Amino acid sequence: MKQILYAILALILLAPSSAAAQAQTSATSSPANIVERIQEESEGEIIIDIPEEIMKEILEEPSQRQSGQQRKGGQSSGRQKVTNSGFRIQIFSDGRNQATLRSRATARANAVCARFPKYRGQVYTFSKAPNWYARVGNFKSRDEANAALGELKRAFPAFASEMRIVQSAIVPTK
Question: What range does the domain containing 75 cover?
Fold first, then answer.
């Protein structure tokens, strides 16, 4: 995320704001040091307009981020902010055979999405070393999660014993 911030700052600082500034820059010898250039051209006043969504992303703690390590299995890559506490159903958790963990977690998540289209966009696969996890749903109450757990266990008896409800930050559903 810091690389994005630095890239934005570099673009802002290196792009002349007007034709006059461009003429002035080309007419005078520009300092080689970027800090000196900023001091000369800004006259001490720098205004950087960064959209609020990007600022939140930049300032957000890594532990609060949902993407990167935590991804939606088989779903679009659009990021949604986690804002509420609730429950999810853990359908996969394993730390053995490291070479295949990610693909196994994703396969299980995709199987749930294929059988239950209502969970598309609500299946999350992520890693927390050394384990990989796959979780389903954004349930506000334990009762909602229990009903869904029963439905999933009936549909997938082969791994029903591994399924359980976990308390989790959730993405509010519409």
Answer: 64-170
